[in-house]
């Protein structure tokens, strides 16, 4: 998407007054088999839209401060999960984090590869519901542009990339075992978009959350195996070259019958689009 367009589109998103808690680490997880679990290491050039959300002040320098994933959708626009920037996840309001950055073009968090770019502005989805996890996204404006090659297009409603059965790739620096093994290297896993009925059956409303087809999608393999995991949140799920999901929540990682749940990206597109019939910008 063009930068000017993105800029025009993000205006309607209001800064949320309060953000309540979704724990960054979900409780359930025990003994999952294997990005990402059930995945494989990749080079960032294979998924250059994958950026790390980082704060060394808050999370320490050992992994460059990485604590969530995020996705480049414009040269100065990045999207991530709203819960990544909740007071609970950060231990303080996000505007108190002086060194919130995205790290782009870096495969290995121990290297100096790529760019570290400061986040200039955070806009929470005003419709984000921390209890149901519905609408789990925030739009970040960067202080300097990313390379154009890093940008991935967002899939709008009706895009065939959302069709059940579609192969998709999820990428991130999250737990690779479900037991707290955080890699330095970027990993990815191949998953499949699952039918909404299946997602709803998997998450009818338990302690981990309930599935809402309007704002979420789920992906994985029925038998379990490949999945996103803790630390991947906010990162990309890409199918047919378009962004369809942001890692949002799950129950453990890679467990049979419990697919990963993602923020449905068409909701972000919709939120960024000015309402029909809105007066041209500059007028009220
Ligand atoms: N909430 C987690 C995070 O903050 C993401 C969990 C995704 N879980 C899954 N099984 N797909 O990193």
TrEMBL record:
InterPro entries: Peptidase_S1, Peptidase_S1_PA, Peptidase_S1_PA_chymotrypsin, Peptidase_S1A, Trypsin_dom, TRYPSIN_HIS, TRYPSIN_SER. The keyword Kinase does not apply. Coiled coil: none annotated. Residues 36-277 form the Peptidase S1 domain. Residues 1-32 form the signal peptide. Keywords: Disulfide bond, Hydrolase, Protease, Serine protease, Signal. GO terms for biological process: proteolysis. PROSITE patterns: TRYPSIN_DOM, TRYPSIN_HIS, TRYPSIN_SER. SMART domains: Tryp_SPc (SM00020). GO terms for molecular function: serine-type endopeptidase activity. Belongs to the peptidase S1 family. This is Serine protease.
